[in-house]
Design goal:
The complex is a heterodimer. Chain A has 8 helices and no strands. By secondary structure, chain A is an all-alpha fold. In chain B, strand 4 and strand 5 form a beta hairpin. The chains are: A mainly alpha, B alpha/beta. Chains A and B meet through helix 5 and helix 6 of A and helix 3, strand 8, helix 4 and helix 6 of B. Chain B: This is Histidine/lysine/arginine/ornithine ABC transporter ATP-binding protein HisP.
Chain lengths: 219, 274
């Protein structure tokens, strides 16, 4: 059992790193996609709409498997010999793609809920569009998006467990190995649950702080 | 560089009025939501003039005002601001929308025209002072410290020195609109555009906003005011225009406009608003 404490610590590190990296990349992708979705260019908007609809409509597990095995096929073909995709990398890519699709829709809704008059006021002063984004849209959009983003981050932390299916040694995989080898499934899965619960609780606390930080003064 | 630009718009600089101050709009047409909102309007605003635009809702007066700083882009027609023709692409016959050709020019022109909106449109996450100073800082590159001084000056001018650090949510509608006026003033614009500035206010708050506007009019500023406040328009403006069906039906100095209107529609409009 003692050996598994070390393994759980390593698995925890992997899970946290995976969530943070794919969450950060996914939010960046989501912001870009939201901007594309709101673009005047119909082709861009339609392409982004296609992406978010497909990704949100397919189970995450399948996306992970497709990216893992598809990536292996593609890279092997490129190098002319069998190359196996790194499980962590496949995890980052698939979770980023998924997270980007969900946050894109969150950001898009948040931008649309900002009264058009506030953007017109910025334009009427002669502000450049990107100044309008930074001054008017982004700060208010983040505030509006925060509750939905909190939910999405919690989902992300839990979804990292799916990456264990392609061999990533995260919390979930450590628990599964321990459960099998020591024949104590309940102990190991309860331990894993506690770790995930700790992580999601921490995420909730952080988002509550952020919501307070970005609250509209005076409400 | 300039010559090249002039060449790309053949109409520019050929037989056009020399750098005349003020605003000139010619044959402005705009279709919105299947309605011909503007149907070839002609409008001139001379420096120092205070022009009130009146008319029933749907007559096109707000749309015309918004065309002057291109918040609404006219489908057809030309606009000169301070003698400079705005580079816009007309809407196509096949429904392609009108567009701005020179965004840099439009930003410069917008910065020279302050606009005050019906719904104030303050930014709720910024204090009154920040609402006023962001324009000078971001558009004119004025340093924060100097901008704050400028902002306090204009907040004092609208009687809100003590509200600099208040957020819009803590201000009454009348106070919010006065902050919005200070925001427009802080850009030190050559023209002020008012789009029904008192229409969203409770009746008891209208007076404080009109008093500020009257004081500005007394400074010889160029102002275009779309309004329903007939008494105010009569008292403050140097010229009044009546819009109906997407055209200016009648315009004259306020004395004639209100005392001896020519068109039957204007007579009816004035009678119904008495």
């Amino acid at each position: 059992m003692d050996g598994f404490v070390v393994q759980f610590v390593n698995g925890l590190k992997t899970t946290v790193l995976l969530a943070l990296v794919s969450g950060a990349l996914g939010m960046a992708l989501g912001l870009l996609a939201a901007a594309g979705r709101l673009s005047r260019w119909r082709a861009v908007s339609a392409a982004v709409g296609f992406y978010t609809t497909i990704i949100r409509g397919v189970p995450e597990l399948i996306i992970i498997l497709l990216i893992y095995f598809g990536g292996t096929v593609a890279i092997s073909a490129f190098f002319g010999r069998y190359v196996e995709v790194n499980a962590f990398l496949a995890g980052v890519v698939s979770l980023t793609v998924v997270f980007g699709a969900y946050t894109a829709e969150i950001f898009r809704g948040a931008v649309l809920s900002i009264p058009a008059g506030q953007i017109e006021a910025a334009r009427s002063l002669g502000l450049h569009p990107w100044q309008t984004w930074l001054l008017v849209i982004l700060p208010q959009m983040l505030r509006i998006a925060l509750p939905a983003l909190a939910n999405q981050w919690i989902s992300l932390v839990k979804e990292t467990s799916l990456i264990s299916i392609v061999g990533l040694t995260d919390i979930m995989r450590v628990a599964a190995i321990g459960a099998g080898s020591l024949r104590a499934p309940l102990t190991f899965y309860l331990a894993a649950s506690a770790l995930y619960l700790a992580l999601t609780s921490l995420a909730l606390v952080i988002f509550n702080l952020l919501e307070r930080r970005f609250a509209v003064p005076g409400r | 560089m300039r010559a090249a630009k002039a060449l790309s718009y053949p109409a520019f600089g050929v037989g056009e009025p020399a750098a005349e101050p003020g605003i000139r709009a010619e044959r402005i047409e705009k279709r919105l939501g299947g309605n011909d909102v503007l149907r070839g309007v002609e409008l001139i605003v001379r420096p120092g003039e205070i022009l009130s635009i009146l008319g029933s809702s749907g007559s096109g007066k707000s749309t015309l005002l918004r065309c002057l700083n291109l918040l609404t882009i006219p489908d057809r027609g030309d606009i000169w601001v301070h003698g400079e023709k705005l580079a816009i692409r007309a809407a196509s016959q096949h429904g392609g929308p009108a567009g701005i050709l020179d965004h840099r020019q439009v930003r410069r022109v917008r910065a020279s025209m302050g606009m005050v909106f019906q719904n104030f449109n303050l930014w709720p996450h910024k204090t009154a002072l920040e609402n006023v100073t962001e324009g000078p800082v971001l558009v004119k590159g004025i340093r924060r410290g100097a901008a704050a001084e400028l902002g306090r000056h204009y907040l004092a001018k609208v009687g809100l020195s003590d509200k600099a650090d208040a957020y819009p949510r803590h201000l009454s509608g009348g106070q919010q609109q006065r902050v919005a006026i200070a925001r427009a003033l802080a850009m030190e614009p050559q023209v002020l555009l008012f789009d029904e500035p008192t229409s969203a206010l409770d009746p008891e708050l209208v007076g404080e906003v009109l008093r500020v506007m009257a004081a500005l009019a007394g400074e010889g500023r160029t102002m275009v005011i779309v309004t329903h406040e007939l008494a105010f328009a009569r008292e403050v403006s140097t010229r009044a225009a009546f819009m109906h069906g997407g055209l200016i039906e009648e315009e004259s100095p306020p004395q004639e406009f209100f005392s001896s209107p020519v068109s039957g529609r204007l007579r009816g409009f004035l009678a119904s608003h008495r």
